[in-house]
Amino acid sequence: FLARVFSILAESMMFFALLKWIEMQSQHMNSFTWFYVAFYLPITFFSLPIGAWIENKTLQKVMIYSDFFRVVALIVFALFMYQIGYEWTFVLLIIISILGQFFLPANQSLLTFVVSNEDRAKANGLLQMAYTVSKITGGLLASFLIKQSVSIPILLFLSAIILFLSLLLVMKIKPYVKKESVGDGKIVP
What we know:
- The chain is mostly helical.
- Helices cover 77% and strands 0% of the residues.
């Protein structure tokens, strides 16, 4: 639960920090459109294939790799963002968006192995509520820190730290769960 909260919180903070970065660096109003396209279009195209791909994968490892590569991407970008053009922000958004799509379905699938059938509906509702609260909290926290003149690279490093905490929490989930495919692959009406 906390790993998911931290992952979403970090992604939301990163999203608002990069949105501010685009505002500060770009003179074109189209940049905001491309910002949203770069973040949400990969979700549209890759969420279903990624969800299918995690079948037969160890769920915690998928989540760990997702967090790890997002941490690396954020740190590398934060270190070099002043030396490269702001257009590289769109590349980062695409990468972060795709990597984030591995975490959420793996996390959601892990729920069935952690919670009993009787408590699953309540736990699922709690996860969805945590998703919304984390998104809002991340945006508010990023906005507050930007208002306090915290630099964008510092916000990205903070997001990377929160993602790293998510990674550490996922590593504590034992035993590792490998989601097995069910059935012969036929669709039955």
